[in-house]
């Protein structure tokens, strides 16, 4: 797409492709949400979107992703990649930033369908967007967070080199919940998998960067 080159941006790893979703991708992503993302007895998300009734959940997922694309601006951008494994959409991985040209800091969030968890794919998809951030966009730091009762997400962060960065206390389902904030410096990140970035140069202005930005080889 000539006037929205983000649709041509892709990240590839040995097992995954990450891309900005098409309408068909969003339809498939909504299927993964319906199939289940987590144990119903706990809530791993600060915004409990998976608590929506089954009749409303698919539409909510699609509207959220379309809204994110509509609101994307160079000084406040949000790449909501779908994660594709063996030709099938299995989850979502986002990379976002505000005033990135100055702050050089990004934030991440993600989810995988339950059938695809516990296979190392969560680490691989986060590594892909961190490589985009550090090697492709010149980020200095990346931040994330996870609730203390979400050991899988915290383990991915530790594996990738994040360090603790304080706590966030909030209310989830009427109960007190504590999130661990995490921070990763560029010099502390080494991707555990090879990552290739495709179609980045035309996208640089959409990240608030000049087209003279050095690109990864």
Named at the architecture level, the CATH assignment of the domain at 5-136 and 193-207 is 3-Layer(aba) Sandwich
CATH domain fold name of the domain at 5-136 and 193-207: Aminopeptidase
The main β sheet shows up as: 9 strands, mixed
- CATH level-4 homologous superfamily of the domain at 5-136 and 193-207: Gcn5-related N-acetyltransferase (GNAT)
Shape: globular
Number of strands: 9
CATH class assignment of the domain at 5-136 and 193-207 = Alpha Beta
Helix content: 25-40%
- SS strand fraction: 25-35%
> Which residue ranges are poorly predicted, with pLDDT under 50 across at least 5 consecutive positions?
none
Order of secondary-structure elements:
EEHHEEHEHEHEEE
Mean pLDDT over the residues: 95
Structural class: alpha+beta
Trace the largest sheet across and list its strands.
Answer: 7-8-6-5-4-3-2-1-9
Distance between the termini: 24 Å
Q: Report Rg.
A: 17 Å
Helical run tally = 5
How is this fold's topology laid out?
Elements: E1 10-12, E2 17-19, H1 23-35, H2 57-71, E3 76-85, E4 88-98, H3 100-103, E5 105-112, H4 121-136, E6 141-147, H5 151-160, E7 163-172, E8 175-185, E9 196-198
Parallel strand pairs: 5-6
Antiparallel strand pairs: 1-2, 1-9, 2-3, 3-4, 4-5, 6-8, 7-8
Description:
The protein is an alpha+beta fold. The chain has a domain at 5-136 and 193-207: 3-Layer(aba) Sandwich (Aminopeptidase). Helix content is 27%, strand content 30%. It contains five helices and nine strands, in the order ββααββαβαβαβββ. It has helices spanning 23-35, 57-71, 100-103, 121-136, 151-160, and strands at 10-12, 17-19, 76-85, 88-98, 105-112, 141-147, 163-172, 175-185, 196-198. It has a nine-stranded mixed sheet with strand order 7-8-6-5-4-3-2-1-9, with helices on both faces. Helix 1 (23-35) crosses helix 2 (57-71). The radius of gyration is 17 Å and the shape is globular. The mean pLDDT is 95.
């Amino acid at each position: 797409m000539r006037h929205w080159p983000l649709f041509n941006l892709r990240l590839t790893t040995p097992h995954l492709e990450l891309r900005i979703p098409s309408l068909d991708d969003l339809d498939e992503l909504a299927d993964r949400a319906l199939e289940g993302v987590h144990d119903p007895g706990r809530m791993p998300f600060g915004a409990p979107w998976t608590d929506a009734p089954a009749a409303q959940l698919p539409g909510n997922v699609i509207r959220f992703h379309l809204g994110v694309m509509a609101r994307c601006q160079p000084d406040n951008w949000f790449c909501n990649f779908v994660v594709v494994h063996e030709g099938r959409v299995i989850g979502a991985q986002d990379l976002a930033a505000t005033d990135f040209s100055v702050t050089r800091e990004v934030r991440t969030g993600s989810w995988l369908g339950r059938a695809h968890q516990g296979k190392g794919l969560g680490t691989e998809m986060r590594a892909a967007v961190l490589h985009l951030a550090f090697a492709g966009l010149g980020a200095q730091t990346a931040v994330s967070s996870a609730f203390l009762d979400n050991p899988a997400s915290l383990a991915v962060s530790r594996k990738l080199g994040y360090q603790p960065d304080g706590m966030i206390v909030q209310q989830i389902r009427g109960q007190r919940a504590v999130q661990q904030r995490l921070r990763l410096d560029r010099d502390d990140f080494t991707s555990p998998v090879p990552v290739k970035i495709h179609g980045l140069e035309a996208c640089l202005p959409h990240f608030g960067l000049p087209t003279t930005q050095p690109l990864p080889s």
